[in-house]
Design a protein that fits this description.
Layout lengths: L5 E2 L5 E13 L2 E12 L3 E5 L6 H8 L7 E6 L13 E4 L14 H6 L14 H13 L15 H14 L4 E5 L7 H18 L2 E5 L3 H7 L2 E6 L1 E7 L6 H8 L3 H8 L12
Parallel strand pairs: 4-8, 4-9, 6-7, 7-8
Antiparallel strand pairs: 1-2, 2-3, 2-5, 9-10
């Protein structure tokens, strides 16, 4: 698996570099003049009101949506580059919403994270088995590794899909609303896991969440997005909701973010 990182002037490894990016969908400009850099080991929280372009930004980073202008580079490569295979772990909102009657164990789900174009027709070897075992251990699911996914709690299912990403040995993990539908204890446990992945494993995380209070507890850095990046800085410097509304000059930011501050239902952004 080949990966090339870019060195910035401060010597930090560049994982993601977005330059002057704009994205339109159905003829409507959704993102404008996005400039963003994320370095190795960072835990970045991405927040914003409904329709602000969060999902559009993630899909553009992944190469699923084409940019109207500007550029996106991960590990020095364009999205969808074969050199990125295995380096990017993507956990969508629907990833943990597997049918309750599905007959697949935690171990089998995580094994899917080791499958790629090069090995899909090969036997499951010791090296891949070791990666699966390590990923399951990292998310603390060893005691249920042979249990069907449908029998797990919401928090456990989220951990299992994150383990699937880890089994691919992904260095950059992108999560879209992983806190939706899980209780407070599971949420706190998951946030602790993600923080440990950054500190102990050197992983880099970009996470979208409507749960502003929760993400501020853990993320090292916060980005507030509404068509363009309105704030990008240390979590401790993140402005209060009234100040965010003043930044935009409207009251909708405060009302919308406040209503989702402890969201328990999936976002319906329509982005």
């Amino acid at each position: 698996m080949e990966s090339i990182t870019i060195e910035q002037s401060d010597g930090k490894e560049m994982i993601l570099a977005i330059e002057n990016m704009s994205v339109a969908r159905s003829g409507k400009l959704i993102l404008s003049d996005i400039n963003l850099r994320i370095h190795k080991g960072e835990f970045v929280g991405l927040v914003g009101p409904n329709g602000s372009g969060k999902s559009t930004l993630l899909l553009s980073i992944l190469g699923i949506l084409k940019t109207q202008s500007g550029s996106v580079k991960m590990f020095g490569h364009s999205p969808m580059s074969k050199n990125l295979h295995g380096n990017i772990g993507w956990v969508s909102q629907a990833a943990a919403n597997l049918p309750r009657d599905i007959k697949i164990t935690v171990r089998e789900l995580v094994q899917l994270g080791t499958v790629n174009a090069k090995n899909m027709f090969q036997l499951f070897d010791k090296e891949r088995a070791a990666r699966v075992e390590k990923a399951i251990q990292m998310v603390d699911l060893l005691d249920v590794k042979n249990t069907d996914i449908g029998r797990l709690s919401g928090g456990q299912r989220q951990r299992a899909v994150i383990a699937r990403a880890l089994a691919s040995e992904a260095e950059f993990i992108i999560l879209d609303e992983p806190l939706v539908g899980i209780d407070r204890d599971a949420r706190n446990s998951l946030l602790k896991l993600l923080d440990n992945l950054c500190h102990d494993e050197g992983k880099t995380i970009l996470m979208v969440s409507h749960d502003l209070a929760a993400i501020r507890q853990t993320a090292h850095r916060m980005i507030f997005l509404e068509e363009t990046i309105r704030f990008d800085g240390d979590t401790e410097d993140f402005p209060d909701l009234v100040s965010l509304a003043d930044l935009r000059g409207i009251g909708r930011v405060h009302e919308d973010m406040h209503s989702h501050n402890h969201a328990t239902a999936p976002s319906k952004e329509g982005e």
